[in-house]
Amino acid sequence: MSDKPQLRFAPSPNGRLHLGHALSALVTWAAADHFGGTAHLRIEDIDINRCKPEFTEAIVEDLHWLGLSWPEPVLVQSERFALYAEAADRLRRRDLIYPCFCSRSEIAARAEDKDPDGAPIYPGTCKHLTNAERIIRFERGDPVQFRLDTERAIEETGMLTYTVIGPTLADRPQIRYARPQRWGDVVLQRKDMGTSYHLSVVVDDAAQAITHVTRGRDMEAATDIHVLLQMLLGFSTPIYHFHRLLLGDDGQKLAKSRSSQTLADLRSEGWTAGDVRRAVGF
């Protein structure tokens, strides 16, 4: 990997890109230009049930239409499950991961607080199971996922900080404190895919020697967990930049799940790449 700054744009191919994605991609390439680095495309398709090859092809088409290019080969997460499992095993050998057999409804019924995303914080029910009880649940074939023992992890790492540049790329870097405890014991290996966003993104940022991460402001809180995992796994922590979000007429951020108008829709209506750039402030 080059000594130059390395950045990445990492969409999930579970739908077509919209204007919010265009903004995020353009911020990433602008940051690469600003810092004299390279912007990479990464395909984050660990959710193999929702991600489709045709959406990957559409992502490439849309980004090329915007005038963006990147080095090959592109990192594809669905080809790297063994590496995520290896990282999880490193944590498991230090008793930093434990199995959880709770359902979502059980967690919601017992949770007392919510995390920064508004989801119930896991109350730690399965953390206190004995080895014998865990063996019984495994042998019975109960669905299982694996959680980070966040309290134990923080005891190991101590206070954590990371560097943020913003609100513009030209601003002076600032030091922020990570607060992973507000997330509780997050899932690192999900029942349905054997990994999680938190684990896979940290492993891949390290593998690609990513030095600068550009993210929407809605992802800022998740950085708490990523900084913690980077320290636990012996990885470097990138510099972060959190960019503004594009909102719809209802004041909500654009999202695939809300069927926001796609770049393909706009292109079919006669929009040019220049129109998209101007619409998102580029």
From TrEMBL:
The superkingdom of the source organism is Bacteria
| Electron transport recorded as keyword | no
Instruction: From the UniProt record, list the coiled-coil ranges.
Output: none
Instruction: Output the Pfam families linked to this UniProt entry.
Output: tRNA-synt_1c
* PROSITE patterns hit by this protein: AA_TRNA_LIGASE_I
UniProt KW Nucleotide-binding keyword: yes
Q: What are the GO BP annotations of this UniProt entry?
A: glutamyl-tRNA aminoacylation
| Keyword tags | Aminoacyl-tRNA synthetase, ATP-binding, Ligase, Metal-binding, Nucleotide-binding, Protein biosynthesis, Zinc
Every Glutamyl/glutaminyl-tRNA synthetase class Ib catalytic domain range: 7-264
Q: InterPro entries of this UniProt entry?
A: aa-tRNA-synth_I_CS, Glu/Gln-tRNA-synth, Glu/Gln-tRNA-synth_Ib_cat-dom, GluQ/Sye, Rossmann-like_a/b/a_fold
For this chain, one GO molecular function annotation is:
ATP binding
Q: Cellular component terms, GO, for this chain's entry?
A: cytosol
Q: Which family does it belong to?
A: Belongs to the class-I aminoacyl-tRNA synthetase family.
- Know the name of this protein? Glutamyl-Q tRNA(Asp) synthetase
Species of origin reads Devosia crocina
